């Protein structure tokens, strides 16, 4: 426990015994970023989007954080972020690890196009069932996604041929992301 710089509490010992890897990851993140328990779950997992606001209790005071904008990643993988803390603007430049590692940006599904299949919830893709070129009927399963320990089977909204599968098993997805295209 001391080697990990973990608190010497009964709760810490129990957490470590039940979920050792999860707890080690938590302690590493705690030492790197501080106490992130002040963030709500969606902000913690997915960050804020432009226009979103979040109330946080910091140092015993309530603080309003508003995300104003975030630029696309530059060639060197950095983004410019402009936000407000209690109405006072702040600008920072941060490295987008996904962009600097060459991760692909997932397109958004167009709700007016019947064959574009969108993610219903933010989470991850567990497994793919249909592949490019498969013939599907309306309601056939295409893939299984997971959000907050709940699995959802994504089905074909129309009959046709799978023209494109835009994600892979293990991909992180956000609600509205384009998962597949059926023609």
Q: Can you describe what's shown?
A:
This protein has 183 residues and is of the alpha+beta class. Among the domains are: 61 residues, pyruvate carboxylase f1077a mutant fold; 67 residues, RNA polymerase II/Efflux pump adaptor protein, barrel-sandwich hybrid domain (OB fold (Dihydrolipoamide Acetyltransferase, E2P)), CATH 2.40.50.100. Helix content is 18%, strand content 38%. It has 4 helices and 12 strands, in the order αααββββαββββββββ. A 4-stranded antiparallel beta sheet has the order 1-2-3-4. A hairpin with a 7-residue loop joins strand 2 and strand 3. The longest helix has 14 residues. The protein is globular. 13% of the residues are buried. The model has no long low-confidence stretch (mean pLDDT 87).
Structure characteristics:
4-stranded antiparallel beta sheet, pyruvate carboxylase f1077a mutant fold, 183 residues, OB fold (Dihydrolipoamide Acetyltransferase, E2P), 18% helix
Uncertain spans, ≥5 residues at pLDDT below 50? none
**CATH C-level category of the domain at 116-182:** Mainly Beta
Number of strands: 12
Name the CATH architecture of the domain at 116-182. Beta Barrel
N-to-C order of helices and strands: HHHEEEEHEEEEEEEE
> What do we call the CATH homologous superfamily of the domain at 116-182?
RNA polymerase II/Efflux pump adaptor protein, barrel-sandwich hybrid domain
Helix proportion range: 10-25%
Structural class: alpha+beta
Note the total helix count.
Answer: 4
**What is CATH's topology name of the domain at 116-182?**
OB fold (Dihydrolipoamide Acetyltransferase, E2P)
Our estimate of the beta-strand percent is 35-45%
Question: Quick check: average pLDDT?
Answer: 87
Give the overall form.
globular
* Widest β-sheet, arrangement of strands: 1-2-3-4
Radius of gyration: 20 Å
Main sheet specs: 4 strands, antiparallel
End-to-end Cα distance? 56 Å
């Amino acid at each position: 426990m001391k080697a990990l710089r973990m608190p010497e509490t009964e709760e810490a010992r129990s957490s470590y015994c039940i979920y050792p890897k999860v707890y080690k990851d938590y302690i590493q993140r705690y030492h790197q970023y501080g106490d992130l328990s002040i963030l709500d779950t969606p902000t913690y997992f997915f960050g804020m989007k432009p226009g979103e606001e979040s109330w946080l209790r910091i140092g015993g005071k309530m603080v309003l954080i508003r995300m104003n904008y975030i630029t696309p990643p530059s060639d060197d993988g950095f983004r410019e972020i402009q936000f407000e803390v209690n109405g006072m603007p702040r600008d920072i430049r941060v490295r987008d690890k996904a962009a600097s590692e060459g991760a692909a940006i997932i397109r958004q599904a167009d709700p007016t196009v019947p064959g574009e299949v969108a993610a219903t919830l933010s989470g991850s893709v567990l497994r793919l069932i249909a592949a490019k070129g498969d013939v599907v009927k309306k309601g056939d399963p295409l893939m299984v996604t997971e959000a907050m320990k709940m699995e959802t089977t994504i089905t074909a909204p129309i009959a046709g041929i799978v023209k494109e599968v835009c994600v892979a098993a293990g991909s992180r997805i956000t609600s509205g992301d384009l998962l597949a295209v059926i023609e």
